[in-house]
Amino acid sequence: MDSEDIYANVPSRDIQDSTGPQTQNHNQDEEKARKHRGSRCVLVLLVILGLICALLLLFITLQHISITAERDLFKTYKNTVEELNHTISSLQHDNTDLETDKQQLEDKYNSLSLEKLELENNITSLSAELMKARSKPGWFFMSTEAMSWSESRQFCRNHGADLVIIKSEEKQRFISSFVKERVWIGLSDIQTEGTMKWVDNSILNNQGFWLKGEPNDQDGIEDCIELISTEPALNNWNDLPCSKNRKGICEK
Ligand SMILES: [Ca+2]
Ligand SMILES: [Ca+2]
């Protein structure tokens, strides 16, 4: 039983009788003050409850924002991981292709190396045969550029040969068959006009393979003999000035 009930159970007449009018007013003031304090307490409690609710709402909102952000971050992370996995897979595929290409290139390189070795062996073999052939008599070659008869002869000598000597129809046909221009041969009458001599000092003792009307020693200055391949094979010699420029046919 609280104090209000106690006061309520006391007969108002007795109170009035024992305390008088002043006491009664005092009690009424106290009761008003008590009610006023109670109202304030309730108000304070309501304010506190409101603040708690507001804080709870703020906390829930912040939690929601935090969870949403973490979920978005997780999604981003997941996408990044998937992209990385895709990239790794692609790179592995590319690496496999590159390994295949590398293996093919290595095989090709090995094959080419073998071919190169075979070609080098062939070149060595052919070079040996060439040297062997060149060491034998009857090897023919042409000077590299047109020069006077003496210069052409010197070119041949510098290469261990001399201007060609033609003493048979067979050789005349052979030389005429591969020469494509006007060339010096190893015949002249430089020493004695009218006496044709080969470069080995042997005298031309047959009629030779002269162009019709040659040798004519035109103007008295034609002492060296050329072979004109465009003329018939057995009639293509001509005497002309030794200073004229022709390539020479050398024979080793
Ligand atoms: Ca002459
Ligand atoms: Ca002539």
Query: What structural category characterises the helix and strand content?
Result: alpha+beta
Tally of DSSP helical segments: 4
**What is the average per-residue confidence, as pLDDT, rounded to a whole number?**
88
Compute the number of strand runs: 7
Our estimate of the beta-strand percent is 5-15%
Large-scale geometry? rod-shaped
Percent helix, as a range, is 55-70%
How is the main sheet built?
A: 7 strands, mixed
Q: Span from first to last CA?
A: 154 Å
Question: Could you give me the name of the CATH homologous superfamily of the domain at 140-251?
Answer: Mannose-Binding Protein A, subunit A
CATH topology of the domain at 140-251: Mannose-Binding Protein A, Chain A
Overall CATH architecture of the domain at 140-251: Roll
Question: What is the rounded Rg?
Answer: 65 Å
CATH class identity of the domain at 140-251: Alpha Beta
Bound heterogens, unique? calcium ion
Protein name: P-selectin-like
Organism: Danio rerio (Zebrafish)
